Amino acid sequence: MPGSYPPAGQFAPPGVPMRRPSTAPAYLCAALFLPAVVLTYVAAIVSTDGSVESTFDMHMLSALVAVTFSDDVTGNIDFAVSMSYTYLSVVLLFVVLLCIRLGFARWVGAALGFVAVVYYFCAMIYFLSNDATEMIVMPLVLVVLWLIPAVVAVLPPTGRAMRGYRPRPLMGMPMGPSGYGYSSRSTTAVAHRHRFPPNRRIRQQWATSGNTCASYWRRNRYRPDGAEGCRGPLGP
After folding, report:
1. Cα–Cα distance for residue pair 46/41, rounded to 1 Å
2. Is the pTM of this model over 0.85?
3. Which of 31, 70, 168, 180 minimizes the number of CB atoms within 10 Å of its CB?
4. Which residue ranges run through the membrane (predicted)?
């Protein structure tokens, strides 16, 4: 209907305005990172002293980033706590940039999310191989919490919500029936003529290029048979 908008991401016919893509996926993606970040921050705060006095402390300890390597590096929990704070701070930085809708931020955020997924999956295997089956609960939860925003970040709707997104340019027009003056070259030239070239010299070249029905009609308007074979949008 007149004045209506086509679906986001699709081309509008001439004279119909194109609807801007929604920015909601960008903010949704940024919000989906927060549960994993908050949960790991809480685990780092609770496990700062390294004491394990209850089942809750044990689960919080297993949620730390690089806890499986902490014994080999420092011999205590300090390495895992510091790595958790550092990793989460970097993730939060790119979450803020994602809220600003910077295109590169979603790719970096997705990469950080997938790295966390791989680590916690390996942590589950480590705990199972060391007969610590009760410690795989939090890594399993964090695998899901990191995987969801990482997948959402690489989806096309999130990319269309970023700043500077431009839809693909119109490359041609629908082909007409054979014998009516339509060809791939002429329809492309006609499509470009409707885009108002900014340069006068280019407009003159297109007008005299001989690839459009209008040029064919101008060349043959004094012939007895005229330009009957050219019935395109710019024909007689």
Report:
1. 9
2. no
3. 168
4. 26-46, 79-100, 107-129, 135-156
